[in-house]
Amino acid sequence: MNLQIRDDMPDLSMSTPLSLDALSSNLMLDTPGVDLWRARRHLLDTKDLTKVEVECALRFAAVCKKLCQLEIAPLPVLNSKVVANIFYENSTRTRSSFELAARRLGATVLNLDVQSSSVAKGETLLDTAQTLIAMGVHAIVQRHASSGSAHRLSEAFHDKVHVLNAGDGWNAHPTQGLLDLFTMLEVMPDLCGAKVAIVGDISHSRVARSNIWLLKLFGAHIHLAGPPTLMPPEISKLGVTVHNQLEPAIEDADFVIALRIQLERQKKGEIPSLSEYKKLYRLDHHRLKLAKPTARVLHPGPVNRGVELTDHLADDPELSLIRTQVANGVAVRMAVLYLLLASKEAKS
Ligand code: CP
Questions:
Q1: Largest CB tally within 10 Å, which of 103, 115, 239, 282?
Q2: Does residue 214 sit within a domain?
Q3: Does 5 fall in a domain?
Q4: How far apart (Å, rounded) are the C-alpha atoms in residues 81 and 106?
Q5: What is the CATH number of the domain that holds 30?
Q6: How many domains, in total, are found in the chain?
Q7: Three-class SS of residue 309?
Q8: Could you tell me the pTM of the whole model?
Q9: Is the CB of 301 under 6 A from ligand 1?
């Protein structure tokens, strides 16, 4: 999939302030998949998405990235909308980039401080959401430790609010999957037959699950590597190849995605010792020589420096895509917010 902006796209830098009509045509509302997004209320999981929808979102993300690079955004496309971030778990990247994305589309952003909210007094997730909806919130971006919580919210308030899952338990982190895919497609426009290794704590990783669904949709061969205690027993049923050793997983790989080891789990004895983990699975320049010479490394963040990969590799501007992933997160989140909230209105 080619993420280049199409040649006939007008020079947006010449047309500020943009009218909604101009923007709608520049944002390619005739792109296949827009009708599917118009019919969609929520973004809960990557496994719900068709390839056409994913390609549509990534085309929009490419345009949004360009708009940000040209410093044309903020755009007046979500001016009447209110987007609420409700994060029951900590976040740097996802929360900040959803906020930036919404602001760059002109939306009002409400960041609920869960720690100091009435959640501390026992208010339920659904009551919190209902309260915000009563105040006129149009979209809730939610992160929660409980798998399935975003689905629950979407079922309870299907017609009242758009729900965007910003990570629920071990289940899904759809915008992370989309931004990882976008980042890989920028490097390699055709992922069909590409080898992608995912290394680390697969059991507890919503990122791994969201990536697997999308990468399969684009024809990549997925190889997982990690300690047996961090590998779900049934995972090979998803059509992936499972290794307990790092080397066969990364051999000839086009991309290697290192996952965060959740150190809090180590304290509870759920993962092997860190020193053993580093000895067997930590990525470094030497080990990466097993992969293709063009291979690139990704990590969803936050990185445990020196655990999943060496500092030298994490900061290598040639081999590491970590900063590009972060930058692309804003564009991808602009795209999904636009498609869920604005594209419906743009048609009428
Ligand atoms: N990748 C990711 O979800 O990072 P944050 O926890 O910082 O949002």
A1: 282
A2: yes
A3: no
A4: 8
A5: 3.40.50.1370
A6: 2
A7: strand
A8: 0.93
A9: yes
